[in-house]
Design brief:
The structure is a single chain. With 134 residues, the chain is mostly helical. 51% of the residues lie in helices and 0% in strands. The protein folds into two domains: 9-55; 73-126. It has seven helices and no strands. Helix 1 packs across helix 3 (38-51) and helix 5 (95-102) packs across helix 6 (106-115).
Length: 134
């Protein structure tokens, strides 16, 4: 693991740190070599004692980036996109108009649409309607 060029970087760094720990290197020195805090090294060592090699490189529960949207917002974006028309003269939702309507960011709307393969600007494929030739 420590010499791998194909494993995730996190896993390689932790494996190297654990090898140094096995050689008797102090946590502070391992932290300095790894570019992390000494508390992080302690957590890696504890996780290794609990799980063995299966725990190397695993992100602990509760760590990492949290979801940016409140529960139910994705469903509401999908419902409004599919079932409601925008007010005014607009014929379909834009990311900005739907974001304003729901009180979220335009990038959040774009991400929900991309994740669910929605393209409301393509009237023919989105709504099943065909434009008449003029």
């Amino acid at each position: 693991m420590a010499a791998s060029s194909s494993l995730p970087h996190r896993q390689v760094i932790q494996a190297r740190a654990l090898l140094w720990a096995g050689d008797g290197v102090a946590n502070e020195e391992i932290a300095r070599r790894s570019g992390v805090d000494s508390d992080t090294v302690r957590r890696w060592r504890c996780r290794f004692l609990e799980r063995g090699t299966a725990g190397v490189g695993v992100i602990a529960q509760g760590r990492g980036r949290k979801p940016g949207l409140a529960p139910g917002i994705v469903a509401e974006v999908l419902r409004v996109t599919r079932e409601e028309q925008p007010s005014g003269e607009a014929t379909q939702w834009s990311t900005r108009s739907l974001a304003r309507r729901l009180g979220i960011g335009k990038d959040s709307v774009a991400k929900v649409w991309a994740d669910h393969k929605l393209k409301p600007w393509q009237v023919k494929t989105f709504q099943g309607q065909q434009r008449s030739a003029v």
